[in-house]
Amino acid sequence: MTQVSRRGLIGSGAGVAGVALGAAGGWYAGDHAAHATTSGNPTTYPFRGAHQAGIVTPAQDRLHFAAFDITTRSRGELVGLLKAWTSAAERMTQGLSAGPVGPTEGAPLAPPDDTGEAIGLSPGGLTLTFGFGPGMFRDARGRDRFGLADRQPEALRDLPHFAADALDPTRSRGDICVQACSEDPQVAVHAIRNLARIGFGTVAVRWSQLGFGRTSTTSTSQSTPRNLFGFKDGTANVKAEQSADLEKFVWVDPADDQEWLGGGSYLVARRINMHIETWDRQGLQPQEQVVGRTKGAGAPLSGGTEFTAIDLAVKGTDGPLIPIDSHVSVVSPDRNDGVRMLRRGYNFVDGSNALGGLDAGLFFIAYVRDPRTHFIPLQARMASNDAMMEYLQFTSSAIFAVPPGTKSGEHVGRALFA
Amino acid sequence: MRFALPVAALVIVPVLAACTSTTTDSGGAAGAGGPITVTSSDSGCDVSSASAPAGNLTFNVTNNGSKVTEFYLYSADGKRVVGEVENIGPGLSGKLIVTAAEGTYQTACKPGMVGQGIRADFTVRKPAGGAQAPSEDAVLISRAQNEYRAYVQKQADLLVSRTKAFVTAYRAGQDDRARALYPEARFPWEAIETVAESFGDLDPRTDAREADLTSGQKWTGWHRIEKDLWPPATGYTQLSMKERTYYGTDLLKNVTTVRDRIKGLTFTTDQIANGSSGLLEEVATGKVTGEEEYWSHTDLWDFAANVHGAEVAFEDVKPILEKRDPALAKQLTARFADLDRLLAEQKRGHGYVLYTDLSRAEVKRLADAVNAVSEPLSHLTAAVLP
């Protein structure tokens, strides 16, 4: 059987990658019987569709999120990479090896085209979601990088500085992002590792973040998880089943600004460190006052159960039952022009810091239709009014335009480069 | 990855490769026309035949002169070395085996190892009826092996001469001069590091860093002296002149042994390719992180030397690669050029900026460029193998 060289995909343009995609189809049934998955969650989600997977897909439990700098100056090489990535991503989400040869099937002296740590693992619902940062369109001095400057959406600008931002520039921003989510952390890491490998020379990893434990619910079929403060998180999230709200708050309309982004979204990523040890010394009731919900059931302090609507008007003897500076109050749609967002964050613990405290918190990911109206005002309010800010520090910040789903025979972001 | 050059490999001399200068064994691969005898004297270069049929040519070179001599086979324009045998002492002989295709060449003896040498035209003609002309591959492979061997030997000679100058300055207490010579003396070592460190007994005595030592192991070599020349501000006692003599002499003795052993080496195509990617791995793990030259911070010299050696090895096998995988050859050429350009930005005078003067962003850019070369380079060996 003809071997398709993975190396041929990188930077060598349309023809070769097109062949590879075609060839990949032929490999599905045959060769990879040898790597039939043997353990774990066998769920797979289609890679192609109207929207990218990994947004309204029921949030998987594990995350590896990577941001890349584009190092090439060649538009052709960049497109070549997107094609190679599309091929590898489609394969991996379907439980196949990253390259068409496989982790152990290749020439003995050549490095395998798949790194092998996912042999025998089920995909666990692996999704790979791609986004394009402002730096893909213009460099730091505002110069057009790849002839795409006139296609940069107005809303795709570096986020402004917010109070309590202590951003580490080496883990902020990025020209391209890839969000890998799976029920199996090793599968998610395998995906990013293999994509990074394909990208060497065209892109370079700028930073990456592991997350365990989803902190939001993107489907009504899922129960609400807890963040590292110990509270339920994501109760009021926009969910896959709420199609009207998805159209209104998540998916970009082609008429919004740039047509190529129609059916896509904006991804805002913020690494939020929590002062865990300080938080843990707060009384139960003060903790609930900060959040605005009960710690056990997650019910709003205004009464009811978890999914009862919050009522900011209900008053007790000392003012509103839900304190005005509590988190749910500050970010409630009622006080933010009705704005909702689809959050898809993860808990993270990157070991401990130099002082022995947990280097931990929440890696916040939100998908919004327009960050200028659906994220920035809310974040600004939160940064200056939210009682929770005392326990938070924002250490990373990034924004990406997430192109719509990839159609059959196309590569990720094709409409942008068309 | 370790360079695949176990000492045992010395025994398995590839048929196409050149042999050492002191071997007088007349066996082995001789050309269809039999060995050609070369007699080098202080003023003459007598080649027994001015032509030979295409295939494996064997030149048996005898030095009848009073100076050390070398023998070369050059391309028709007299510029490119097709094969060479060096360091043939007075009264000794050496042998060059080279696979040559039909065409015109030049032979040259270089008594005293200087100058253009005593040249003559040499013709490789069509093999006699029935004999097989050498394949294009065999010619390219032979050329790659001869060129790389010549490079490694030159670096090994430089290593000894520069180390001698460095050790002399260090022993004489000329610390400024020794500090200036240190990175320059290390350059040839680093350029052929995958070969030099393949001598498992010598590498730890020569190139061990303090952190590499196991308990009870005596620390000698380059980095022992480095620490003495760039001592920590506190808690360090300078070596006495007697100790300097000991460590300096020991280093010179060891690099000389390395040089002498290298003289006997030949390299297969996959060893050359592995050597190239191995050198880039050395950059990625030790130099771009600033770990190699912990006291002197002259890591960029080592970095540049590793890259130089990797690039030479790549260039040597590139004609083979261009036939087998032209896209990879093109990509590697471009990415080596990117890396060279980036490295050139850090050049200062004859040397480089200190590692500690690089910004974090500059280090990241260098690391990105190293990755950009290393990933495709990891495919070189499989691509050039027959």
Walk me through this protein's architecture.
The complex is a heterodimer of chains A (418) and B (386). Chain A is of the alpha+beta class. Chain A has helices at 14-27, 75-93, 185-199, 243-249, 276-280, 284-291, 327-330, 371-374, 376-385, 414-417, and strands at residues 62-70, 127-132, 176-182, 203-214, 265-274, 315-316, 319-320, 342-343, 346-352, 358-368, 392-402. In chain A, strand 9 and strand 10 (358-368) form a beta hairpin. In chain A, helix 1 (14-27) packs parallel to helix 2 and helix 2 (75-93) runs antiparallel to helix 3. The radius of gyration of chain A is 22 Å and the shape is globular. Chain B has 386 residues and is of the alpha+beta class. Chain B folds into two domains: 7-134, Sandwich (Immunoglobulin-like); 144-384, A middle domain of Talin 1 (Up-down Bundle). In chain B, 47% of the residues lie in helices and 16% in strands. In chain B, a hairpin with a 5-residue loop joins strand 5 and strand 6 (81-88). The longest helix of chain B is centred in the middle third of the chain and has 36 residues, at 136-171. The model of chain B is unreliable at 1-31 (pLDDT under 50). Classes of the chains: A alpha+beta (418), B alpha+beta (386). At the A-B interface, loops of A face helix 9, helix 10 and helix 11 of B.
Overview in brief:
Chain A is of the alpha+beta class. Chain A has ten helices and eleven strands. In chain A, the strands form two sheets. In chain A, strands 1, 2, 3, 4, 5, 8, 9, 10 and 11 form a nine-stranded antiparallel β-sheet that branches. A two-stranded antiparallel sheet of chain A has the order 6-7.
SSE diagram, text form:
The complex is a heterodimer of chains A (418) and B (386).
Chain A: H1 14-27, E1 62-70, H2 75-93, E2 127-132, E3 176-182, H3 185-199, E4 203-214, H4 243-249, E5 265-274, H5 276-280, H6 284-291, E6 315-316, E7 319-320, H7 327-330, E8 342-343, E9 346-352, E10 358-368, H8 371-374, H9 376-385, E11 392-402, H10 414-417
Antiparallel strand pairs in A: 1-3, 1-4, 2-3, 4-9, 5-10, 5-11, 6-7, 8-10, 9-10
Helix pairs in contact in A: 1-2, 2-3
Chain B: E1 36-40, E2 45-47, E3 51-53, E4 55-63, E5 69-75, E6 81-88, E7 93-100, E8 103-109, E9 118-125, H1 136-171, H2 175-191, H3 193-196, H4 203-207, H5 222-229, H6 241-263, H7 269-287, H8 299-324, H9 326-344, E10 347-348, E11 351-352, H10 360-377, H11 380-384
Parallel strand pairs in B: 1-4, 3-9
Antiparallel strand pairs in B: 1-2, 4-7, 5-6, 5-8, 8-9, 10-11
